[in-house]
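thought: user wants a sequence for this fold. calling inverse folding tool.
action: design(structure=
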């Protein structure tokens, strides 16, 4: 069977500080089951995830060979983590009607290769988007890279109201029982959500004029572990408050994704905070979720169990729209207008 589909294509790799909604062209094309190769499926897109890293995938100044994945080039389809419904299949592991968690294109219908299919959905499909790469990013970043334990007394999480940040906070408090979980977010409403729903003992609004003083007052005994989702000035402040042999998990840098090559300005860390890394023997480690691919089943099992036990509350911000509005999700994400995991539910 053949399907007519609309699909978003990248016009050309982008620079800093642009309106990302104008970076794509919407085309109409045909996809046919006759084109399926062994192991592939033809699927209808159900959910599309919006994630900060996507901004890096389309940036023109990626240094060749230095990004963890192949950047998306001019005239190529935009990609995302998502959920799709199998319509036609040449993959023995998946049958028609199955919901699969996969890398999908910004499209209504498309062919998905076997290497881009991660697992079959085993629960609410929107939960799979949240528990999938997002939940596992929190899981592996906190437990494997950060080596967090109940012995840690203070953990600070930036972009704590983001999908990843909120899960980090809840694992830290509700699973590990860490005494002081401090979340940083960009509005009073988000801070209220963090203390109400995400297990934070303290939530700080980084836009407050007294944020620096509030941050110092909240960390009188310094920080065991800083889970960094933003980079920039917040990270600079955290490095000045680390304990001896404290750990910094570098998960993301949303504050600078849109100005990677900006000249001047404070987009990095200061000399003073870097000196503290040396003086206090601070361990700083970045990671990519796929380095833990062989452990995905264990992580998903733990995350699902904690959700069923009420230890994790999945915070989802779902936009129901058709394919023509999908790029607006990326814009919403970078404006910080979402609460929790930002997902487009596609009306086809």
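)
observation: tool returned 348 residues.
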């Amino acid at each position: 069977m053949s399907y007519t589909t609309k699909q978003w294509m990248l016009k050309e790799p982008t620079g800093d500080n642009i309106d990302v909604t104008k970076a794509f062209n919407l085309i109409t094309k045909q996809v046919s089951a006759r084109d399926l190769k062994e192991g592939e499926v033809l699927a209808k897109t159900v959910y599309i995830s919006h994630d900060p890293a996507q901004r890096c995938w389309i940036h023109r100044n990626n240094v060749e060979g230095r990004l963890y994945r192949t950047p998306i080039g001019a005239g190529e389809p935009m990609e995302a983590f998502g959920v799709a419904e199998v319509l036609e299949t040449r993959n023995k592991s998946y049958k028609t009607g199955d919901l699969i968690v996969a890398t999908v294109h910004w499209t209504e219908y498309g062919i998905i290769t076997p290497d881009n299919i991660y697992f079959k959905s085993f629960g609410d499909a929107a939960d799979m988007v949240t528990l999938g790469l997002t939940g596992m990013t929190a899981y592996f970043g906190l437990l494997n890279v950060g080596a967090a334990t109940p012995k840690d007394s203070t953990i600070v999480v930036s972009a704590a109201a983001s999908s990843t940040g909120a899960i980090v906070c809840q694992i830290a408090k509700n699973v590990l029982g860490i005494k002081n979980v401090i979340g940083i977010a960009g509005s009073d409403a988000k801070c209220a959500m963090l203390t109400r729903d995400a297990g934070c003992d303290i939530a700080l609004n980084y836009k407050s004029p007294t944020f620096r003083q509030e941050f110092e007052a909240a960390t009188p005994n310094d920080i065991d572990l800083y889970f960094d989702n933003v980079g920039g000035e917040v990270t600079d402040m955290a490095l000045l408050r680390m304990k001896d042999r404290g750990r910094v998990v570098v998960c993301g840098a949303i504050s600078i994704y849109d100005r990677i090559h900006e000249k001047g300005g404070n987009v990095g860390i200061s000399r003073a905070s870097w000196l503290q890394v040396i003086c206090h023997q601070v361990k700083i480690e970045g990671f990519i979720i796929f380095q833990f691919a062989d452990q995905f089943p264990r992580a998903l099992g733990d995350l699902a169990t904690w959700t069923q036990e009420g230890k994790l509350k999945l915070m989802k911000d779902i936009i129901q729209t058709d394919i023509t509005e999908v790029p607006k999700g990326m814009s919403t994400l970078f404006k910080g207008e979402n609460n929790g995991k930002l997902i487009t539910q596609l009306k086809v």
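thought: summarizing for user.
answer: Here is the designed sequence. The chain has two domains: 2-121+315-346, 133-290.
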